[in-house]
Inverse folding.
């Protein structure tokens, strides 16, 4: 199942989003193009492939730092039958554009984007509640932020919420200003998150030459 | 009471730099004020010991300049006692050049505190790079506040110190993420000083129409030299046009 289902509504939403950015937000156009690079897609398909070996369906998902979250939302809803995804991304433009890319899923109330910074706010979005426990947590960009164990402590352990299955990706490529938290290997990534059980640990050389690390665990 | 503050630590600046700032504000302010330097090496009567409570969070490997030390003054009760909570405050970085009277800085409407909105920044660039922790439109070289207007920043830092010090190389990027709104500037916690008051020696004045670098604009109030984040470590006293103005 290492593919995305490029449905007619995905095509419609994505093409209209690209046209919108080109016309109305040209200063973001290159960023949007960057979100569709070969290596971006490789990372998401890798997640798709390995996560599916562990569990094939999820219900209530937190994505942290999901950016425009187009491909990942598609994978989670179309391949893992997810009912609700909240993408927590502090960037207002990312939220706005993610709603364009995910218009159908948003209209169906399956996709929501929050600008809350989970490192400082005390609560997750209340929209998770009707869907029960959060059963999957994904951070596809740990290199951009502080340690995940702080998030797990604050939003799960300290408030007696069961820890969901966690999928974390990062890199050792530290020559970007915004890569503030690179790790040397997936084991360091796992340690930073305080995972006590790991079901997958791996490294993938992406087409852009970057090492991508991924851990799946609790 | 009006108070003018600066903060000095480490070896980048010495007491002569502080004296020059003091001379400049005395020459350019018609109001009565107290002058204080919050420093790790108190020498003069106006020096006050810099607190060190956040030093435990400093991460040497990150090699950040760590101007967070400025933020101790945001709950000035910790430094000046409880009587200080009704006073007026104006902070200057040590490396500023004051061309004209700073009285207008005391006469601003104070429903919000003020920080330098670098008008030399293209705000669309700031929006584009928001998530990349760069291109902040803010510069904390001149801050104006009354009473306890900034105490929430102090407590925000104290509560989230490890995350903030790990994530934000400069306090200007930190302020941009938590106390400014690059998409709706009027809605921000801080207000920027109006155009025409403060400009930057290294970055210009107003985007895009007045961006000439290293140009004195003597009709403005303050010229900023802070450029440590971009790796330029030129001392303003070594710049001929500037040293002549002292």
């Amino acid at each position: 199942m290492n593919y995305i289902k490029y449905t007619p509504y995905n095509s419609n939403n994505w093409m209209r989003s690209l046209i919108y950015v080109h016309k109305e937000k040209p200063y973001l156009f290159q960023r949007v193009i960057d979100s569709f690079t070969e290596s971006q897609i490789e990372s998401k398909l890798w997640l798709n492939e390995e996560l599916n070996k562990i569990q094939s369906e999820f219900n209530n998902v937190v994505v942290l730092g999901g950016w425009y979250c187009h491909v990942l939302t598609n994978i989670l809803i179309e391949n893992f039958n997810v009912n609700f995804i909240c993408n927590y991304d502090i960037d207002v433009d990312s939220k706005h554009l993610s709603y364009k890319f995910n218009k159908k899923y948003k209209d169906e109330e399956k996709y929501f984007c929050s600008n809350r910074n989970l490192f400082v706010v005390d609560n997750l979005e209340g929209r998770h509640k009707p869907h029960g426990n959060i059963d999957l947590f994904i951070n596809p960009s740990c290199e951009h932020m502080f340690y995940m164990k702080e998030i797990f402590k604050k939003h799960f352990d300290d408030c007696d919420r069961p820890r969901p299955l966690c999928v974390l990706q990062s890199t050792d490529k530290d020559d970007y200003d915004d890569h503030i938290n690179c790790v040397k290997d997936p084991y360091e990534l796992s340690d930073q998150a305080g995972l006590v059980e790991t079901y997958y640990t791996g490294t993938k050389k992406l087409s852009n030459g970057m090492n991508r690390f991924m851990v799946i665990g609790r | 009471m009006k108070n003018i503050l600066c903060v000095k630590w480490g070896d980048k600046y010495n007491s002569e730099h502080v004296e020059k700032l003091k001379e400049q504000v005395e020459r350019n302010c018609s109001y009565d004020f107290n002058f204080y330097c919050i420093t790790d090496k108190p020498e003069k009567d106006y020096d006050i010991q810099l607190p060190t409570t956040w030093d435990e969070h400093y991460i040497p490997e990150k090699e950040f300049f760590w101007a967070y030390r400025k933020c101790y003054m945001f709950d000035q009760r910790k430094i000046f006692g409880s009587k200080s909570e009704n006073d007026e405050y104006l902070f200057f970085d040590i490396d500023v050049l004051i061309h004209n009277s700073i009285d207008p800085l005391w006469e601003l409407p104070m429903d919000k505190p003020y920080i330098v909105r670098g008008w030399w920044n293209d705000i669309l660039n700031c929006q584009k790079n928001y998530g990349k922790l760069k291109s902040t439109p803010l510069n904390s070289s001149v801050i104006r506040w009354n009473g306890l207007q900034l105490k929430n920043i102090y407590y925000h830092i104290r509560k989230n110190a490890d995350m903030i010090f790990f994530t934000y190389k400069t306090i200007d990027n930190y302020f941009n993420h938590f106390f400014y709104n690059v998409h709706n500037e009027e809605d921000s916690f801080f207000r920027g000083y109006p155009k025409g008051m403060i400009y930057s020696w290294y970055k210009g004045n107003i985007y895009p129409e007045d961006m000439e670098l290293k140009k004195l604009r003597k009709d403005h109030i303050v010229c900023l030299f802070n450029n440590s984040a971009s790796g330029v470590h030129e001392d303003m006293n070594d710049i001929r046009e500037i040293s002549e103005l002292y």
About this structure: Chain A has a mean pLDDT of 97. The two ends of chain A are 24 Å apart (CA to CA). The CA atoms of residues 138 and 149 of chain A lie 13 Å apart. Chain A has one domain: 37-217.
